[in-house]
Input
Amino acid sequence: MSRPVIHVINPNSNTVVTAGLKEALAPLVFADGPQIRCSTLAEGPIGIESQADVESVVLPLRRIVAADTDAAAFVIACYSDPGLWACREATRRPVFGIAECGVATALTRGDRFGVIAIRTKSIRRHLLEMSVAETASGEGTLARMIAVGTALRDEDGAEVVVMGCAGMARHRRPLEEALGVPVIDPTQAAVAMAMGAVRFG
Amino acid sequence: MSRPVIHVINPNSNTVVTAGLKEALAPLVFADGPQIRCSTLAEGPIGIESQADVESVVLPLRRIVAADTDAAAFVIACYSDPGLWACREATRRPVFGIAECGVATALTRGDRFGVIAIRTKSIRRHLLEMSVAETASGEGTLARMIAVGTALRDEDGAEVVVMGCAGMARHRRPLEEALGVPVIDPTQAAVAMAMGAVRFG
Amino acid sequence: MSRPVIHVINPNSNTVVTAGLKEALAPLVFADGPQIRCSTLAEGPIGIESQADVESVVLPLRRIVAADTDAAAFVIACYSDPGLWACREATRRPVFGIAECGVATALTRGDRFGVIAIRTKSIRRHLLEMSVAETASGEGTLARMIAVGTALRDEDGAEVVVMGCAGMARHRRPLEEALGVPVIDPTQAAVAMAMGAVRFG
Amino acid sequence: MSRPVIHVINPNSNTVVTAGLKEALAPLVFADGPQIRCSTLAEGPIGIESQADVESVVLPLRRIVAADTDAAAFVIACYSDPGLWACREATRRPVFGIAECGVATALTRGDRFGVIAIRTKSIRRHLLEMSVAETASGEGTLARMIAVGTALRDEDGAEVVVMGCAGMARHRRPLEEALGVPVIDPTQAAVAMAMGAVRFG
Amino acid sequence: MSRPVIHVINPNSNTVVTAGLKEALAPLVFADGPQIRCSTLAEGPIGIESQADVESVVLPLRRIVAADTDAAAFVIACYSDPGLWACREATRRPVFGIAECGVATALTRGDRFGVIAIRTKSIRRHLLEMSVAETASGEGTLARMIAVGTALRDEDGAEVVVMGCAGMARHRRPLEEALGVPVIDPTQAAVAMAMGAVRFG
Amino acid sequence: MSRPVIHVINPNSNTVVTAGLKEALAPLVFADGPQIRCSTLAEGPIGIESQADVESVVLPLRRIVAADTDAAAFVIACYSDPGLWACREATRRPVFGIAECGVATALTRGDRFGVIAIRTKSIRRHLLEMSVAETASGEGTLARMIAVGTALRDEDGAEVVVMGCAGMARHRRPLEEALGVPVIDPTQAAVAMAMGAVRFG
Output
């Protein structure tokens, strides 16, 4: 019998981010467990940094979800959760958004959480002034994340920290060690929940 | 290398419930994945149905968590989440409560959720008038759950239903089929999240 | 000097709805006041009744807003407020969504309000089982609106009622007379607010 | 046919404030539109700066509203919304409070708003230490408003700023230019909404 | 040394209500404790049943509070809490509103509470269709209170019931016996809190 | 006839704290009023400073409440409100928690309140870095409370301050004088409410 598939879609067209997702999710790949397939949205922008970027991927994501009759569950791997409800309308199989899953998972680890966001227009505090691409590769990213995470922990009382971007997973462990509180990678959180949905569904 | 352990503790002393947990969680047991160890709290009451029942298991649970240096994560398998913070204080490893995890998981599947509760003094609506033991074994349980779930769905607009007890897992699938909306077993939800914490931690 | 323009965009392609908007908004057309220009989104679906319908008009709306350098303000005349933030990102001129304006206006008339919604998947109570097109033209619409409005007023304590659709304006006055509480047409509410923004901006 | 009247009542007895209201509202006076009549409450205090001041105008306002059978709508032009419910009880015609209308209008322009308040006992942050009279005439007012508005925008993330007083309208445009976000004068906002109520009612 | 005075003001002019207050509060009169002085607002309406009634007593109440330099604390014995902030502004001694105290006290007895309201325009459910005067004296009052209280307890899950009027105290005990949950008389609750403020202040 | 008893239980085993409670509550002891009996939980820890400390006293408290058929009401004199619901389940007589009563009382004195907490793991701001024992006896306590209370008042806008510990009562009056806003001792607040419940019950 074939192993069921969890389809993780990177809605931006940056294949470096997709490769990072694949690597970050490897610990949930078991010999007799679900497959985790990571794909790149070819039509997507190189990074999702504006409302227009978000909107531009909604219908392409929906088409992919509707067309992929193979997958048992979907994860949309962008912290804006683009197209979540449009995709859910297109299938009865579960569709997870990583922002929702990251926050939900944080709430099972403590009472207050903080989110480390990257550059956006709508969130003015505790953000990293860098692009999605820089986040995945940049040298100074971890140091800045530790600074922001420390402020969330000490000034705002965060007991858990969520990394507010799909491309930060490789910083999760050193950030958690530096902060001493749980740090959640939202794509990892979403895939763990998708695993439950697929296996128990 | 030995496989890490997720320790699922049934805080009541009903071994039928523990056996049901083990069976319900089998789909998350993989050859090269974490072990899922289900144990019964010998000191626990036969069912946790009053505040005194809840309180009576808090310190025993904490002792077990503190003593089990083997486990990589803990799940307290009672929908009252007894002793959650006392156990967390006793270890730096993650401790999950199934009520928190059930609700968090429901929120990743829809905007409104309902909980099917069993007999309690504090919740007067949408409850099943039966004991924990009856829930696990009783004949009429599923029919009553379908009736309550239908009311949650149609009158209160629930898009997801959480089963508010650790002992209902075998009714999950038929209930989901009858209702046509996702039905969450909270212990399954918690163990999926524990799996993520263990593998990514 | 030319009169400034308030551009009211009907995001569905039903020109009967657009004609109804024009008629409904006529009372705010003054000889020396702003022009109210009503347009139809040719690419839009005949009615916006699903999440896919909503998403399909977002980028077309944004293109229209970005291209129309003439208008002093925009009103998106669909109760789902499709593309509100995408349009706002494309211009510094004000963009009003009729759902936001309808609710905001209701809150200036009373403490509790209710919304009469048409058929949707996400709202299960107090809705009219009819399409957008039927709403604008159907014979039995008013009677059904009175029944739903009466329930909002008497069972839920609504002191104000909002008509949750752009195409219901001609029923506003008889509905208000039947209910005896203020009834808000959201497009009228939005254009009154746009008038303020244009004249005082 | 006579033009309907929007009666804007200044509940303090400072006629300079009333004259400022008249000037601020002129852009909504159209040849064939509603009249905007601004009146001064002779019994009112020179400024409404305490709870006793607020209470002292409630019944006089109610008497004016009940007696003025001419007006099609009323606006109470004080940011404390004194007597709003007492006046509404005295008439079936709409009565608008400028605080409610200012906030409601702000919410149609952005997700977060801030209010620039003048001296009060109950609000300790972001306020201008000046009397109502100084606000209308004082030289340094604008500079102080810009400082407070900048803090609201940059520290608290306000996307819209409401001027929390009836007498600040002439500072609206320069403040908006200095801040780069929409600035709402609450009386202008209320009269725009009253215009809608009168014309569509 | 003279005993400190708690001044309980009945803001309506119905001396039967004042006499009822005096009787209801007698259990807190101790030989060496504070005096409880109950007075009637001569200017007040016979019952406070409209917003105009509420407003009409605000300044008279404030004058009484400002003039009574004798009292150590004040209780305003009307469930609308008329003039609470105006009175507080007039003195540094504590002023208690019975609605606030009734609700605060209810929350120390259970997690959910309900209020039995008398006839008002703004509350449409669970109310008694009778005047304030009827409430104090009418024959059928208790039976109707039991019916409403039963609905609050069984349908809305109230664990505590607050009597939403100053004149119902003599029904407190039989109502509590009939319902089997704590029933709070708000004036009694307020005077107990005033006693604490006076003795510990 | 014997005077009814309010039983105030200090859940820690520090008899200095119990003696302080007795002294702090003396102003509510009247010749013909209820007795206030203060007892020490012999099994309790010397101070309740961790979740384990909280849990360790729950069942002992419940046993005391169940066994004391004499008392008319109970007050649990620890700001964690340990065992509140377990005790309530064991008796039909009222059981008050001082945290609930302190907050409820604060809300009858102003709209915003702050709490001065002692050292805990979960509250990171506005806390005193000292043990329960130090709080009761330490020299520098008052000065530190004034500093924290001033910050609550001036930075957070607190109109009332609650002392978040059972052992601080002797600092109440000087703290209130220093701050100029009401300061609530939670045990005093709870006993005043218990007095009402006992006398009117």
Summary: Chain A has two domains: 5-97+187-200, 102-185.
